[in-house]
Here is the input.
Amino acid sequence: MRVMIVHGRYRSQAPSGENRVVDQEAALLASAGHTVERFERHSDDIASWSAARRAALVVTSVRSREVRRALEDRLATVRPDVVHVHNTFPTLSPSVLLACRDLGVPVVATLHNYKLLCASGDFFRDGRPCHACADGALLPAVRHGCYRGASATTAPVSLGLAVNRGTWRDLVSAYVFISESQRRLMSGLDLPVDRTFVKHNFVDPAPPRTGPTDHAVAYVGRLDEAKGVRFLMEAWEQFGRAHPRSGLVLRIVGAGPLSAEVEAWARHRPSVDLVGQVAPEQARRLLGGAAAVVVPSAWEETFGLVAVEAMAAGVPPIAPARGSFPELVTPGVDGVLFRPGEAASLAASFEQLDRSPGTFADLGRAGLRTWHRRFRPGVGLDRLEEVYRFVRENPRLLPAEVAALPNAGYAPAGTTAGRSRRS
Here is the structure.
């Protein structure tokens, strides 16, 4: 198939798991013999824009005539079988869906976060999960200033959600959620059930281990509140007070808004090894050398990528029993789930690791088998191709819409322009 990937890339200063997933999917499709084209905009470029163009982003993130025309030109030239849309905010806008409709190309949309319902995209406020907007409400986000901490910046984002709700509901042929828990939490979108799919992210094989496993638990990720960094520090404090002679080390890999706070906390704690930000390859090596990987997320992760990366490396994850983790990790089989928000429960997991590292080694071996069965690239490719076949056979295009198109003679290979939609 000929696939066009549409994605607004996140800033390179904030390493993005979503960018990585998009790149890995594109490479996987190409390696399987599909033709992959890309239509992207980069958030890094915003800094070089004129003041007027940056000010207009409030409007162009909702609808962009320039993006729509540019994508229409690419579609007419490339003639893809399917367009796969990932992130559109703020550099692309849902105008990409209008361009695909105008050229009669079916759309697959992967929803990586909660952005179509939640202005901040994470259902997280004041240090805990928040579902005030899960039913489609818009005013709670404005009232609490959920986007960048202010009502003034949240209002246009919420307005954009309202303006484009019908666009997302009517112009997409298949919706891909990255976990079942995410699909349930976003049921307020009222999407057609027969067009929704769950496709877990896949993870590449881990690099070979170069040395023995350290008696360490690793945290690999962004240092911010939603990722549960403060909660992790609290749990480690509890573990340390209860077991002052333990040789277990907490290895922290990453950077973020809480970097200074974490550095000050770690400075006087010999049991904490603060590595900081490193290249992805080194991060995966550090992850693979640990006895366990802790994922203390305070928000309801749509997909716990680090937990699955740990499994791929034969390292058991320790994660909260909420969000996507209960469908990724089977406690006592290939990992550990602790009670969400309870530092004592996470501390008890550290105690279990310290007392019985052999048990965790067994969990890691089982986790590797779980990765091979559920999360390796071949599994992801099969699921992705299944979704693409569905949209080619069931494009969401009304006959009247296609007949009125200026390019009505163009139908992507393998589709029938004018086929009625299923729902």
Summary: The CA atoms of residues 12 and 44 lie 7 Å apart. The chain has two domains: 2-202+379-403, 216-374. The chain has a mean pLDDT of 93. The longest strand covers residues 2-9.
